[in-house]
Please model this.
Amino acid sequence: MERIIILKNMDAGGSITLPVTPKSYPMSAGRAVERLDMAQTGQIALPGLNTLFTGTLEFMLPAQAYPFLTPGAATDPQYYISQLTAWSRDANVCRYIVTGTEVNIPVLLGPLEYGEDDGTNDVNCKLPLYEYRFLDEAKVEQVTQNSSRPVETPPPQASSYTVVRGDSLWAICKRVYGDSSLAYKLATANGIKNPNLIYPGQVLTLPAKGTLAGYATTKAPAAAGTGASSQAEPSEQPIAPKAGSNERVSRDLELQLIRAQIRLK
Model:
């Protein structure tokens, strides 16, 4: 399965799919290890803090329509350069996604390095990536002189979901979080401007429920001439009583009274 690398802007919206999949992609995860020199004992290793990923993504921006381009790729290197440098300059948080893997993390983009190596007009790029940690996920450790070091709980990792035919954000939120009202916040987390419009094959980021609750809501655009959302979450309607049911109950009560009067006589 060929990998596709996507950078999705979580602040300004929009996404970029690399036109040519690189031969490799950078990623790292885990805990740092500290080495100490002990007198007479020698070196020892101690566990450090959880680390944030830092890496450089190397890729090519084609100026020609090669047969190995990803579907829908543009053959204008400046189109990609302008967007990536703008996202880096504006400090937009983007999601770094590698399809077919668990790589789906928020990152900040470093300065884009690019240039041409030959006369093909193709541009070779190097883009530094720095994993971003949201402030509401950061935990401050308070340590006193005699207290033991608290156990760190790694922040919940966001997962991804590929939309299939018949899906809606409400149904996905009900199934994943047990709360369909989070659909508007899920739209914000994925840069979706209209929560009513998702498409088969679209890759959605599913943050932890606690993280998702901190997002603003993205409402559906108002329908023309109504000022109301073009689609609302379906609600249950009360079931009306069958016609004539009250009349039958009255007749039954009347017959019971007549039978009681006859027995008394």
Remarks:
- The two ends are 91 Å apart (CA to CA).
- Residues 226-243 have pLDDT under 50 and may be disordered.
